Amino acid sequence: MGMMRCAVLASGRGSDFQAVCDAVALGTCPVDLVRLITDNPSAQAIERAERAGVLVTVVDPASYPDRAAHDAALTMAMVDSGAELFVLAGYMRLLSPETVRTFAGRVINIHPALLPAFPGLRAPAQAIEHGVRVSGCTVHFVNEEMDNGPIILQSCVPVLDDDDPGTLAARILDEEHRILPEAIRLFAEGRLACDGRRVRILPPATG
Amino acid sequence: MGMMRCAVLASGRGSDFQAVCDAVALGTCPVDLVRLITDNPSAQAIERAERAGVLVTVVDPASYPDRAAHDAALTMAMVDSGAELFVLAGYMRLLSPETVRTFAGRVINIHPALLPAFPGLRAPAQAIEHGVRVSGCTVHFVNEEMDNGPIILQSCVPVLDDDDPGTLAARILDEEHRILPEAIRLFAEGRLACDGRRVRILPPATG
Q1: Phi/psi of residue A140, each to 5°?
Q2: What percentage of chain B exceeds 90 in pLDDT?
Q3: What CA–CA distance (Å, rounded) separates B33 from A174?
Q4: How far apart (Å, rounded) are the C-alpha atoms in residues A99 and A43?
């Protein structure tokens, strides 16, 4: 029996994607990384994928007449990847409701705040502007509302008096790199059980 | 020069109030606890105050014809206490906008969640129902919106798979007992500087 097939969607630098690649290489994240899917033909994540030997599919909105056509192409690329788990790791577009329904329970996202606080864009800047003392990151299942699905893992970091959005984002990113591969591992091991909005972590299988 | 005079407002069990009494007795919270003010004539906090030698004022809503009269009596009791700092420690009523304005910048509240997540009542139950993995508590300045003022200190605790609102509330309460006296100390030492919504903690005075 092979490992679970996993695809990552990313739009930019790809440091979360790199953390997943590294964990897979180290053997601490037992999945087969079958595809990087990006909407951005110049994403730095593409070079990282090539270095890690992961196939890349670019689904560039500029190549499609409208949002619906791009959404359909993205869904097609996800189906084509053969992945059983899809990880949004800095993917800067909302999936369409149809895409979410197509892969229900098989898409997870990482967000740089302790949801439900600070959903949406610029989460570290939002946290700084609100004046919180604690922030962090959240890995959650994706549902049809933005940054709203059942929470799998969270980790918190302090916000310091002299932080700006960049220094806070960097501190949060270190935790993202830790909990994202961990969440993928739990999913791949079949250890996440949804009970309404609550996600329970089952003990490892024995024997 | 005497210590800063501090009054605590509480409605119930008074365990946060007790933590403040204990820190004052230990010398780690340099204030003069001049009054416990409560809206509840059977609050257990009253016995704690008597044991600690703190004067008690009961401002029972049942003794007033309407909300405005009770608000006015509460403001009067706060003025009469002579306190320079007022600490809401499980005080279950909203202060009126007039009361907040009268004591602007001199009222702090402790809330059992990582604000801005889960304001209002039943915060630990809200956290459980939302399925977060991390919650905590917040000490903040009180403004005219509920659970909204500038944040002084926060502390986080894990939410465990088998938590119910009671077990989570107990874990949060341990952190409340730690950060509430600490926030009072910082206020009393003149070390809290508001910069819009952000509160900066100044270094201790030297010499």
Answers
A1: -145, 155
A2: 94
A3: 43
A4: 22
CA distances from B112 to B55, B82, B119 (A): 26, 28, 9
For residue A161, give the chain B residue with the closest CA. B200
pLDDT at A99 over 80: yes
Q: Rg for chain A (alpha carbons), in Å?
A: 17
Task: Mark yes or no for CB contact B134/A136 under 8 Å.
Answer: yes
Nearest to B25 by CA among B68, B62, B54, B57: B54
Please, are residues A10 and A36 in contact by the beta-carbon 8 Å criterion? Answer: yes
Tokens of A122: 């610029």
Banded model confidence at residue A175, pLDDT cuts 50, 70, 90: very high
Name all domains of chain B by residue range, CATH numbers in brackets. Answer: 4-201 (3.40.50.170)
Residue B154 with chain A: CB contacts under 8 Å: 132-134
pLDDT band of residue A45 (cuts 50, 70, 90) is: very high
Active site residue A140: no
Which among A133, A138, A196 has the least Cβ separation from residue B154? A133
- Is B131 close to A201, i.e. CB distance below 8 A? no
Query: If we measure between CA atoms, which residue out of B86, B84, B97, B111 comes closest to residue B3?
Result: B84
Amino acid at B85: L
Q: Note the pLDDT tens digit of each residue in A70-98.
A: 999 999 999 999 999 999 999 999 999 99
Q: Which residue among B133, B151, B201 places its CB closest to the CB of A151? A: B133
pLDDT confidence band for A120 (50 / 70 / 90): very high
The dihedral over CA atoms of A121, B131, A135, B176, expressed in degrees to the nearest 10, equals 150
d(CA B18, CA B180): 11
From A128's Cα to the closest Cα of chain B, the distance in A is 8
